[in-house]
Amino acid sequence: MHTDGGSRPNPGPGGWAAILWAPGWELELGGGAKDTTNNRMEMTAALAGLNALTMPSRVLIVTDSEYLFNGMTDWVTRWSRLGFRKKKGTLLNPGLWRTLAEAALAHDTSWAWTRGHSGATLNERCDVLAAEMIDASHGDELAPTHSSRCERAGAMPNIEGTRTAGIWLPA
To answer: What is the CATH number assigned to the segment(s) 2-166?
Structure first.
């Protein structure tokens, strides 16, 4: 799964996109919000992609957001132990972090970070879709949109140069 999100300006109207991919199959999802941040849209993209899975699945989530990648592979374990709070300062979006962590734990998830705007096909497509969702929202909340696509679904996308990690939360 590839995800992206953004807002223009930040904060402001936002959009997100997720592409679920398997050999011979592809699903694009997208949506937006009137008043949000780029980080909330990045998180919403991953959550929407996970929620679109109809059964427990093994899934690699590829994001160009270091905030989302680090949050789900490092910080969320500590936040979970603290009741989705930080020892110092305020944890932004605690409910969204908790919901995303719970959705990730319903699957065998691993996470990868890739540099944005580096030519990775599905990351670039997510970027375009998220921008379209920002433009389409005109300040209105958008429900997720779904459209199946198969023209690129031949071989696993190249994600060289990514950092990968799993997610572990205390029981």
So the answer is: 3.30.420.10
